[in-house]
Amino acid sequence: MDFQDDNRIQNDRLKSVLDKLSPAQWSQDIGGGWSIGTMMCHLAFWDQLTSVRLRLWKEKGRLAVIPDEDNINSINDSLRFIFGAIDYEHGKTLVKKSADEIDSIAQSLTPAQLAELESTGRDRWFKRSLHRSHHLERIERALAR
After folding, report:
1. What is the rounded distance in angstroms from the CA atom of residue 119 to the CA atom of residue 99?
2. Helix, strand or coil for residue 2?
3. Would you call 47 exposed, middle or buried from its count of C-beta atoms within 10 A (0-12, 13-18, 19+)?
4. What top-level class would CATH report for the domain 2-144?
5. CB within 8 A of 116, min separation 6: which ones?
6. 3-state SS, residue 51
7. pTM to 2 decimals?
8. What's the distance, Cα to Cα, between the start and end of the chain in Å?
9. Burial of 92 (C-beta count, 10 Å sphere; 0-12/13-18/19+)
10. CA atoms of 44 and 47, how far apart (whole Å)
11. Is residue 120 helix, strand or coil?
12. What are 90-120's pLDDT values in tens digits?
């Protein structure tokens, strides 16, 4: 279950970055119309969406459709505007809670469920470390400037 270790490592990394952030850094621009805060809320949104998808799949036995790139970009661009309204304190809590929730759900998946997700191209639904590490690298580079 290497993905669980990877998820935990990236969840710890996420929380470490969040715990060191100041309110000013939450609003810091990182390019492309994103701030550190909006990028953190982006992580929370996708963790929450994935939690809902996995719960529904476990309850109903049907996997949700994987959105195409245009839909993903439309979702991200639309929500970035809304994420900007989430303040520092609420945002930090939301990001941590969302990461913990999806990691817990991912840990509860059986080997058969993991195999089904992987065989249908949904391995990122339980390998949350992949999404976190990608965005945390960008955030950490911005903070190092």
Report:
1. 24
2. helix
3. buried
4. mainly alpha
5. 63
6. helix
7. 0.95
8. 36
9. buried
10. 5
11. coil
12. 999 999 999 999 999 999 999 999 999 999 9
Picking from 66, 43, 72, the residue whose alpha carbon sits closest to that of residue 123 is 66
- Residue 30 phi/psi, 5-degree rounding, is -120, 10
Which sign, positive or negative, has the C-alpha torsion 24, 28, 34, 39?
Answer: negative
CA distances from 20 to 51, 107, 140 (A): 26, 27, 11
31-60 pLDDT, tens digit per residue, is: 999 999 999 999 999 999 999 999 999 999
* Per-residue b or e along 26-38, where b marks 16 or more CB atoms closer than 10 Å to that residue's CB: bebebeeebbbbb
